[in-house]
Amino acid sequence: MSNPVLKLGLPKGSLQDSTLDLFAHAGFHFSVQSRSYFPSIDDDELEAILIRAQEMAHYVELGAFDVGLTGKDWIIETDAEVVEVADLVYSKASMRPVRWVLAVPESSSINSVKDLEGKHIATEVVNITKKYLAKHGVNASVEFSWGATEVKPPDLADAIVEVTETGSSLRANKLRIVDTILESNTKLIANKASWNDPWKREKIESMAMLLQGAINAQGKVGLKMNTPKASLDAVLSIIPALRQPTVSHLADEGWVALEVIVTEKIVRKLIPELKRAGAEGIFEYDINKLID
Ligand SMILES: Nc1ncnc2c1ncn2[C@@H]1O[C@H](COP(=O)(O)OP(=O)(O)OP(=O)(O)O)[C@@H](O)[C@H]1O
Ligand SMILES: O=P(O)(O)OC[C@H]1O[C@H](OP(=O)(O)OP(=O)(O)O)[C@H](O)[C@@H]1O
Ligand SMILES: [Mg+2]
């Protein structure tokens, strides 16, 4: 009998680079040949396919892939029935969610959703936009946009519903946000039948745990040091209480070893303070995963 295989859909497009980077931190090193949509991986039980985030939930629902990554936005827009295994909060450029916003030219007279009555809106998320208008009892026409949506107002549309992360695309096109329609983050999703298969489920759950661990470790480092027992209280008092430091005994009775995980940003300030408080042999190390 051939080995069982888990088919994994990886998002091509905005999420591709950050997803492959996250998987690498989680311990899955894919190699992608240019123009190939089948990244290879040193795991016989895993088969990866690159596919657009817009279509991911649909193919996972159908069972073409057992598991995949896409945004909450496209799961809602395509109305796909899939198991949402884990929220993995990362975007193209940051570890924050994205927002789908209603935006208009800075000089537009549209200041609220009510002002859209009879207007023309361009967007990639037609269903989400239509539901939003219906919820507010507004009649407006919604046209599908193939991309580069920010360029459309005011000539090709009165308003747009577009995704924003850093806000730089909206600013560059002199657009103003009128309302936030949806906040979205990346999710690990699974096919229902695959989720009910014990072997696949365990493999998916392990993957979710490692990916979440890699996200938790982002921006964090480990610090190890020795300190005389007499200075322990002083040293502990300056370590921020993200989580309890580990204190271990050393052969020399007068000393203890301390290990702690802290935000990388504060290390520059923290290390000299630790040294002054009595700590010695301080070293900093990168961490890839942090599992609760
Ligand atoms: N900065 C970002 N811009 C756009 N989409 C983002 C961003 N960060 C995360 N995403 C998410 O990525 C998914 C969109 O990726 P998708 O491949 O569908 O489209 P795209 O952004 O148009 O890609 P492309 O680079 O090919 O234009 C959505 O789920 C969206 O929420
Ligand atoms: O708020 P920001 O950080 O600027 O990010 C949002 C922009 O990034 C994406 O564009 P993409 O690069 O995918 O180009 P596209 O318009 O061709 O889809 C998205 O469609 C927005 O235009
Ligand atoms: Mg795009």
Automatic annotation (TrEMBL):
Top-rank taxon: Bacteria
GO MF annotation terms: ATP binding; ATP phosphoribosyltransferase activity; magnesium ion binding
BP-aspect Gene Ontology terms: L-histidine biosynthetic process
Subcellular location: Cytoplasm
Cellular compartments per GO CC: cytoplasm
Catalytic activity: 1-(5-phospho-beta-D-ribosyl)-ATP + diphosphate = 5-phospho-alpha-D-ribose 1-diphosphate + ATP
Top-level class of the enzyme under EC nomenclature: transferase
Means of activity regulation: Feedback inhibited by histidine.
Name assigned to this protein: ATP phosphoribosyltransferase
